[in-house]
Design brief:
The protein is an alpha/beta fold and 294 residues long. It folds into two domains: 72 residues, Helicase, Ruva Protein, domain 3 (Orthogonal Bundle), CATH 1.10.8; 207 residues, Vaccinia Virus protein VP39 (Rossmann fold, 3-Layer(aba) Sandwich), CATH 3.40.50. It is built from eleven helices and nine strands. Strands 5-4-3-6-7-9-8 form a seven-stranded mixed β-sheet, with helices on both faces. Strands 1-2 form a two-stranded antiparallel ribbon. Bound molecules: glutamine. Glutamine binds next to loops. The site of glutamine has 9 residues, from loops.
Length: 294
């Protein structure tokens, strides 16, 4: 720590210093980042942060804040530094072995939870969340539909143990939830599921190097790269879904803003598009498909 920084004593001063350094490092929303990091380290809420801005900090508190600030300057995502992040009404532990849940995913998951009432009025359905990561999508559905049978699937054991932790920590009916290690749907029997949901890796490999450092350098490549075309996992998942979904079953997938037409073209002989959805930026982001009868 440079010696002049030893003089920084109040919350307000530490805040201004962090905002300045985040701005120089190219961190998006430097003020929000600084406020969240300081509030988190001091375990104070938003209102207290502004009320207490003239309060003095102990050396230990300043040391803790400084270590978080230094990590953020290296562009580690705020969510990994804080270690947990909300998704709908869950509080999820987030770690580098799984993608940080995005607000666009939160938005379509919320929409889907409403639609499921129409598709499955009894609330009893078997579903799988493929590439579950933190468990965000699958646990949100399982929480709202306690009569459902959920399979949270990932190829990564580390991601599965994170999802399991999040299930227990959020008291989501774990007796109805199975955590399954599988390469997509390969472990499932024919016509055994009513619903498949997924936020699969869909970014073309050649685009990965141009992503923000937070994503490119810290989030798991396995959860981002959709191979050379960006469609490799999506198409494999669609092909496997044709076998594993029962006729009339639903398949819901997040995709890149320019991938929708290709997806519809790829599966039009076996799936009917029911709903095409956009994200907050009005970009094509997800699609709900229905498996046609044979
Ligand atoms: N939307 C995410 C991003 O831009 C990517 C998510 C994914 O590949 N499933 O970082």
């Amino acid at each position: 720590m440079p010696c002049w920084r030893i003089l920084i004593l109040t919350i307000g001063e530490v805040y201004r210093d962090a905002v300045f350094r985040f701005t120089s490092a190219g961190v998006d929303q430097p003020d929000v980042n600084a406020r969240i990091i300081i509030s988190e380290c001091l375990r104070i809420n938003y209102a207290d942060f502004f009320l207490k801005k003239d309060s003095f900090l102990s050396l230990e508190e300043r040391g803790n804040i400084e270590s978080f600030v230094l990590r953020r300057i290296k562009r580690e995502p705020l969510q990994y530094i804080i270690g947990e992040w909300p998704f709908l009404d869950l509080m999820l532990k987030v770690r580098p072995e799984a993608l940080i849940p995005r607000s666009e995913t939160e938005q379509w998951t919320d929409f889907l939870i409403g639609e499921l009432k129409k598709y499955f009025p009894s609330g009893q359905f078997n579903f799988a969340d493929i590439g579950t990561g933190t468990g965000a999508i699958g646990l949100s559905i399982a929480k709202k539909y306690p009569e459902s049978r959920a399979f949270l699937v990932d190829v990564s054991m580390k991601a599965l143990s994170l999802a399991k932790h999040n299930s227990q920590n959020n008291s989501v009916l774990h007796q109805n939830i199975a955590f399954v290690q599988s390469d997509l749907l390969s472990i499932f029997k024919d016509s055994s599921l009513d619903l498949i949901v997924s936020n699969p890796p869909y970014i073309p490999e050649s685009d990965i190097s141009g992503l923000m450092p937070e994503v490119r350098d810290f989030e798991p490549g396995l959860a981002l790269s959709g191979g050379n075309t960006g469609f490799e996992i999506i198409f494999r998942l669609i092909t496997q879904s044709e076998r594993v979904l029962r006729a009339g079953g639903k398949f819901v997938i997040e995709h890149g803003w320019n991938q929708r037409n290709e997806i519809i073209r790829y599966c039009m002989s076996t799936f009917l598009p029911l709903y095409c959805g956009v994200d907050y930026e009005n970009k094509d982001r997800f699609i709900i498909l229905e498996k046609k009868p044979k």
